[in-house]
Amino acid sequence: MTDAPASRRPDLGPGGVRALWPVAVASLAGALGIVLVAESVARQLAALAAGEDPRAWLALGAAGVVLRGLAVWVQAVFARRAAIRAKTRLRHDLVSRIAAGDPTRGGTAVLATEGLDALDDYYGTAVPAMISAAVIPLVAGLRVLGADLVSAIVLACTIPLVPLFMVLIGMHTRDRVEHATDALTRLGDHLVELARGLPVLVGLGRLDEQLSALDAIQRDYRRRTVLTLRTAFLSALALELIATISVAVVAVFLGIRLLSGDVTLEVAVLVLLLAPECFTALRDVGAAFHSSQDGLAALTRVRGLLGDGRAAVLPAPGEPGVDALRVRYLGREPVVDRVTVRPMVGRITAVTGPSGAGKSTVLAALVGALPADARCDGTVTGDISRTAYLAQTPRFATATLRDELALAGADADTARALAAELGIEGLLLAPLAELSPGEQRRAGLVRALARVDAGAELLVLDEPTAHLDEGSAQLARDAIRRRADRVATVLVTHEAATLALADETVPVDAAVATTAVDGDLPDSLPAAAGAMPSNPAGAIPLTRTEGGVAVSRSGEWRVLRAVLGAAPWRWVGSAGMGALAIGLGLSLTAVSGWLIVRASEMPAIMYLLVAIVGVRFFGLGRPIARYVERLLSHDAVFRATDALRLRLWGGLASHGPAMRTLLGGGAALDVLVTEPAELREHLPRIVPPLAAGVVAVAGVGVVTSLLAPELAGVVWAVLAVTVVLAAAGGLVAARGAGPERVALRSSLVRRIAALGEAADELRGGGLAPAAVAEVDALGRRLASAESRSAAAAGVGSAVAIVGCAGLAVAVPVLAPATMPVATVAVVSLLALAVAEAVDQVTAAARRIPAMRAVLARIAPVFDAPVAPRGEREVVGPVERIELDGVTRVLPTTGATLFADVDGAVGRGGRLRIDGPSGAGKSTLLAMVMGSLTPDAGRIAVDGVPVAELSRSSWSRHVAWCPQEAHVFDSTVRGNLLIGRDREDPVSDAELTDVIERVGLGDLVRSMPDGLATRVGQAGRALSGGERQRLAVARALLSRAEVLLLDEPTAHLDEPTARELMRDIDQASADRIVVLVSHRPLDRDGRDGVVELGRPSADVRIGG
């Protein structure tokens, strides 16, 4: 990791100073523009006071206005472009690190998107502010020095107070920011872990408990962040107080000196206009301090990850194979010990052994797909650029099979032919996340075969026919056999027909393969090792019909109303305080100008006392109002997004397995983390600034109408045109770039999350470089959209400053000769000062398209229709479940998935659902759970339709063990306890008993901490079969009378599978079991059978 002191130094990131020289040049031009405008206004007012024509100095002001407008645009555009270049480069480095075997890739998806976006504020706000702080005070100070030595001395004495307080307060802020950043990472990791395990939580009826846990984490994050913001905003408050009080002191001091004739009106006005600019530049640095710390924290984290020396174990050059392979994890017995495999072209080698013996570890070592924390002895050789690999649980880096095959180099015709070979040509364009596990396995196999056809020399297959019906399995075996003569093939399987393909076998001894638990796993979810999706959604847009939920882009205003309604008075208060802060600032400027001009007329000082007191009051009130506004708006937005996240979690949870696409960790990360974070970024920069800015602009018009009605028409017209043009220009430019940026950023989050989860398989299959290139291409498209968005931001800000500064320069010329000079000064200075409010409105307006795009992406989950449920309670234990004419129609195509399904099962009986892969077996289980409603027919529990039962009541009586059930990053005990309500505690004796029943007793006893041993991210410490047995044990621990088991013996060898089914039969003797399985050995002649994909059967069994 980067040392702490280095992380605290200013860091310009990739590109360094060269990337920011246009910003420095623009700052210098802007400083000159400020001086020219101030010079023009001062000389015009002095000319009016002397009865001269002010138009002589109009050209000077016009030149200053043009310079300021160009400077603002260049700063906005080039600073953001520097950020974009830095993010693009760093993101590439991060993604490459993930693909190469990043040991902490779980948290990197958030860092590569949400974390790196902190560089926008760092480059766009903090760095330009630091450059301006070095340039503007120098240029303006030199001009003040040339005009009035006394005023220059006053500024020289007060300006150093700003950086002094900034450093003192900032040191405390820095530590708090680091803690808040850690909290954000933990929140993101926890959300992804919950999202990936959502089917398990739904199936076991544990949603409410986890919802409470999520709310507690959110509250803790909000508390930490608000404390951080209080300190950060306190820094800004102190700086603003110093700046405004110093300007007020300068104004009062100038007024008193004017009374004594020690200074001229021209010099006084010039100093009055330039002094605030000196402080504003320094104040902006303090205001940007929080942003700079986030950006620096992101850079430090990225460089820490990139500097992590751990990497995946890759084969050395040579013929593929392993010799005397020994794999272990820190503090554990070897997973495999002295295993030798020498694949040969034209031969199929099967690695055999019982479940948990380390067969998958051997395959992973062959292709360089072991995790980075594995320790290998022996010899591993090969060329991963010429391998093809199917992992035990296929994972994908893209959205569709067609895209995945493109990574493997297959064109459209080749992809179609390969898919047809395994009978899935109709799934080429289907979202991979929506496919059943069997369909996903065939998709993964097609990808591996595409690599073979493209020239791969080693084909490694981990259970290629698991989850497949016999017909699909035979197609897979035939495809493997057809390529066997031109490639070396190594496979693992527990199925006899697939094992028969082998020309030779290599046994793996289970005696030494206790477990692959990491020795240094932390006690809690690591900050940079969150669980990622097993079925990533890739870049699937939420504008599709997903998982049976009709999704549209309408309803964003309903989301907005709900979000604002979570803390309505805080939003009102923040808008009111924002308007008050701007009003006090405008009043300070106006009264200071009036004071200077009136003092030049040398009245008695008593006539100026009220103005002097007013200057002090406004100087004190403005920063305090701004501080309160910031606290209220940020507290409101955190409360709003927390409530939204809970609503979105409920939307995902209410559909359970029916919303398969959105349950993928990549999509869940997007829905639960990225989108609320985007909304949190926009809301406080739209709602309060827009309301406050409009009020402030209107206030300037009203004040002008009261003080100088002759100028009211011009002022109203110019301000209205400026606001409209600035906002419209920003809106037009951002309308395409903003929503496109939101969509691309969302896609990038999902794609990086998918790549992170699939990294080992992609690397082992030689696809990692192509996958990284795909992410880079998406990143370049995002960079292009962000560049256009930056140009839009620059246009709006430039129009705002040109309109207001131009009005300020023109007012002395447009004012009638009879108007008092003090009134002209007030109107002119108000026009100059209101530029901040106009820029606020402009900035808020150009964010609206992006915010609407975020709302439109959230709306589908927010408004997703939930299967209608009644309020009836389940009375007593469930005795019977009946399926009567159940029909399911796919909402995406209108095709019938299955129709007229009949069946029944009673207590002590078992109903088996059979059918080919993709026939809808898991969908039927989802209907039994109540997550989906049949399109026709009904499912009844003791004669009551499931749709009429209370969701909470029914969930207490049914437990579901899904295919590829998620194992949480916790201990063995923690994973088991999820099966039981906290109010119904499980004893260690019960845990030990259920562990023995599912055949994990020896494994747990071999672990150093027994039940307290951590199982790692996604249960990576366990083999696929061990994870499946742990999931079954979890379901058996529940008190549910109805067990829904989806492929419970997947990844198990035949003896272990038989023992597990026998134990399930014994444990469920007084329960109802609904079973999905393709394995003949799971079947019992006493089972009732429902056939899907074939003529319907009317089955009655048990009860």
Can you tell me about this structure?
The chain is of the alpha/beta class and 1103 residues long. It has 3 domains: 4-308 and 542-862, ABC transporter transmembrane region fold (Up-down Bundle), CATH 1.20.1560; 321-507, Rossmann fold (3-Layer(aba) Sandwich), CATH 3.40.50.300; 880-1101, Rossmann fold (3-Layer(aba) Sandwich). The strands form 4 sheets. It has a 5-stranded parallel sheet with strand order 5-6-7-3-8. The protein has a 5-stranded mixed sheet with strand order 13-12-9-10-18, with helices on one face. The longest helix is centred in the last third of the chain and has 56 residues, at 709-764. The two termini are 64 Å apart. Residues 1-11, 511-553 and 1094-1103 have low confidence and may be disordered.
CATH top level assignment of the largest domain = Mainly Alpha
Helix content bin: 55-70%
Largest sheet, strands/sense/barrel: 5 strands, parallel
Continuous helix count? 34
Report the sheet-strand fraction.
5-15%
Shape: elongated
Strand order of the largest sheet: 5-6-7-3-8
What is the number of domains? 3
For this structure, the CATH topology of the largest domain is ABC transporter transmembrane region fold
Low-confidence stretches: 1-11, 511-553, 1094-1103
Helix/strand/pairing category:
alpha/beta
**Average pLDDT:** 78
Using DSSP, what is the number of strands?
Answer: 18
> Which radius of gyration do the C-alpha atoms yield?
34 Å
Shape-level CATH architecture of the largest domain: Up-down Bundle
Cα distance spanning the termini: 64 Å
Annotated CATH homologous superfamily of the largest domain: ABC transporter type 1, transmembrane domain
